[in-house]
Amino acid sequence: MSAPCSADAASPAARNATRVGFFMAGFGLSIWAPLVPYVRGRIEMSDALFGSLLLCIGIGSLSWMPLSGVLVNRHGIRPVVLASVAFLALALAAVALTDSIWVLGLALFCLGGSLGVIDVVLNIQGVLIERETGRRHMSNFHGMFSLGSICGALALTLALSLGLAPETGTLLMMALIVLANLLVARGFLRDRAPAGGMAFVRPTGMVLLAGALCFVVYLAEGAVLDWSALYLTERKALDTALGGLGYASFALMVTIARFTGAPLIHALGTARVISLGGLLAAVGIAIGLFTEHWAFALLGYGLCGLGCANVSPVLISSLSRQQIMPVHQAVTAATTIGFAGVLAGPALMGLVAHYASLTLAFGLVALMLAGLVLGSRRFAE
Questions:
Q1: Which of 35, 49, 201, 330 is disulfide-compatible with 319, CB 3.0–4.6 A?
Q2: b/e map of 194-203 (b: 16 or more CB within 10 Å)?
Q3: Are residues 131 and 98 both part of a single domain?
Q4: DSSP state of 1
Q5: Range of 225's domain?
Q6: Looking at 132, 153, 187, which one is the last position of a domain?
Q7: Contact yes or no for 303/253 (Cβ under 8 A)
Q8: Is the Cβ–Cβ distance between 333 and 203 less than 8 Å?
Q9: What is the signed CA dihedral for 223, 226, 230, 232, rounded to 10 degrees?
Q10: Residues 226-239: pLDDT tens digits?
Q11: CDD domains from the entry (predicted)?
């Protein structure tokens, strides 16, 4: 049985803390992007070595995320969030200050690991809040993460453009993350499993299916993030300097859809949100493939973001309604499986593009998104 959530899960303080936590997690993740040129300039390394270092972020996430449910079971949500924020701050400081490749690799590993734990634990808190209040909040929570990602990149970019040193700018952003989480710390729940609860539970079929569907959505996001610019510039004759507009269109629609999606989710229900979202995302990718002009391709990536936006939030929310597996472990397992798609997506795209074509690779992504229709039937309410 799932662990009972603490009485304050329905309080405004808990909801606000979850929103701030998600926002600052996205904020912290996006700080890395503006730092890349400065890190490359400070530490001499080949492109191959830098690519290997980037894997440390994903390896850290996948290594630490499975521990999230165990930590929450034993210590509660609040200590785990605050400890992870401390690790995140230390990792960002090391990234900004070190001139050692080994320290940079360790810092990126801890960056990915701490953000992975924060993501899982905040999803656990979000599920507990939804169960206690009887209302859907997860899309809004995930929307705060998307908004935080945009604001973090813009904030550090602005600081750097005003002449602030990268080290100073990063430490300032780090201080904002720590301060924001401390200000809302009382809203992080103390929920934990009953004494003697099992640390690990084998995921049920429904939890594995939720994770697999999240995997497809995250794979699509990773594909658009890493490959849309190349596809737009090489196949749609978009200027190289504007290649990032593909992912920008995707991310913008994800953010808008998550903040405005609650009424639609309430009206359609979980299964229809998954199936219609998958179909809309698949159509968006198809438009990007078959249209000749880059403007319509941007529209396609925006539609893909619109379709994907609320699929993972409703899948995570659905785990509160199963009674076989404790909520902490269920959310941990599904989120970890889903996140693997962010790492697998770009790699699989690269393999298909190498042996066939990038067009075929995006076509396979569209087919996988359309396949969400089949998996959605298990989530009918």
A1: 330
A2: eeebeeebeb
A3: yes
A4: -
A5: 205-376
A6: 187
A7: yes
A8: yes
A9: 60
A10: 788 888 988 898 88
A11: MFS_MosC_like (cd17393)
Question: What is the rounded CA–CA span in Å between residue 238 and residue 337?
Answer: 35
Predicted confidence (pLDDT) at residue 198 exceeds the cutoff of 70? no
String of DSSP letters for 247-265: HHHHHHHHHHHHHH-HHHH
Take residue 300 and report the two structure tokens written for it.
Answer: 């396609």
Q: 366: closest CA among 281, 303, 288, 305?
A: 281
Task: Tell me which residue of 316, 9, 16, 13 sits closest to 133, measured CA to CA.
Answer: 9
- For 276-306, how does the pLDDT look when each residue is reduced to its tens digit (9 = 90+)? 999 999 999 999 999 989 999 999 999 999 9
SS3 label, residue 188 = coil
Residue 325 class from Cβ within 10 Å (0-12 exposed, 13-18 middle, 19+ buried)?
buried
Distance CA 197, CA 327 (A): 12
Q: Containing H/E element for 196? A: none
What is the torsional sign of CA 58, 59, 60, 66? positive
- Between CA 378 and CA 331 the distance in angstroms is 17
Return d(Cα 360, Cα 351) in angstroms, integer.
11
Looking up residue 28, the CATH number of its domain turns out to be: 1.20.1250.20
